[in-house]
Automatic annotation (TrEMBL):
Membrane topology of this protein: Lipid-anchor
Protein name as annotated: Lipoprotein
Any matching Pfam family: Lipoprotein_9
Presence of the UniProt keyword Protein transport in the record: no
Signal sequence residues: 1-27
Taxonomy, superkingdom: Bacteria
Keyword hit for Lipoprotein: yes
InterPro entries listed in its UniProt record: Lipoprotein_NlpA (IPR004872)
Gene Ontology CC annotation, any one: membrane
Lineage, highest ranks first: Bacteria, Pseudomonadati, Pseudomonadota, Betaproteobacteria, Burkholderiales
């Protein structure tokens, strides 16, 4: 009797399934993205429920440095990353012999800025001032370009995003440079006269780039932060859904409301 009852239940289930009355459970498509905490991981957390409704299980792997997210994408330990800009990606590819990572979407600009706890105006910066800048090539060049736009130094080519200290041809204030890991710059701000800090690290340190900086990049900066995947997964449905979500009106409003000019949509 039990065997007949079980067979009957199986037959009913088969009939219901055949006519679409029982929908088979579909597993969510997992997508692992590496990101730095602010604002990248915060923006990803915002789109996570949006993607869940579309069948994508977005998992966010947070890093506090600028190397591992790219390395782990390249090594296929994560599906992509959201933290870098194009000059950094190009420099990373050159130094790590990596041609796998490709740009999927431009998301936002974090205007780079100069900060000081010792001086309220740039004009007060003394002769021989110590200036801390990031030590990775793309961001150190970015810092020098921004300093040149403030008239603090002159470069051979003021449009060269790969400029180094060797490219300085005039340094009227005899600035002394300290190149440090980008994440440490907010912590040494009170030990130097001026520090040029990436906005994600500035926000983490409770600095408001719009209100607290002595000078700041404008929204036309070429350093838009990117969603990056690999050539082998850039066209996957999950990556495409994430790109669409990150370029949505909802994300644009979220960025504008939450960061109030410290982060600017780039789409």
């Amino acid at each position: 009797m039990l065997r007949k009852f079980s067979l009957s239940l199986g037959l009913v289930a088969a009939v219901f399934s055949t006519f679409g009355l029982i929908a088979p459970a579909q597993a969510a498509d997992k997508l692992v993205i590496a990101a730095t905490p602010v604002p990248h991981a915060e923006i990803l957390e915002f789109v996570k429920p949006i993607l869940a409704k579309e069948g994508v299980d977005l998992q966010i792997k947070v890093f506090t440095d600028y190397v591992q997210p790219a390395v782990q994408t390249n090594e296929k330990r994560v599906d992509g990353n959201f933290f870098l800009h194009l000059p950094y990606l190009n420099e990373f590819k050159k130094n790590h012999k990596n041609d796998l990572e490709v740009v999927v979407a431009r998301v936002h600009v974090e205007p780079f800025a100069g900060y000081s706890t010792k001086y309220k105006k740039l004009a007060d910066l003394p002769d021989g001032a110590t200036v801390a800048i990031p030590n990775d090539p793309s961001n150190s060049g970015r810092a020098l370009l921004l300093l040149s736009r403030q008239g603090l130094l002159k470069l051979k080519d003021p449009s060269n995003i790969s400029a180094t200290q060797k490219d300085i041809i005039e340094n009227p204030k005899h600035l002394k440079f300290k190149e440090l890991e980008a994440a440490t710059l907010p912590r040494v701000l009170n030990q130097v006269d001026l520090a040029l800090i990436n906005t994600n690290y500035a926000i983490e340190a409770k600095l408001n780039p719009v209100k607290d900086s002595l000078f700041i990049e404008d929204a036309n900066s070429p350093y838009a932060n990117l969603l990056v995947a690999r050539a082998d997964n850039k066209d996957s449905p999950a990556v495409k859904k994430l790109a669409t979500a990150l370029n949505s009106p909802e994300v644009k409003k979220f960025i504008e409301d939450k960061y109030k000019g410290a982060v600017v949509p780039a789409f």
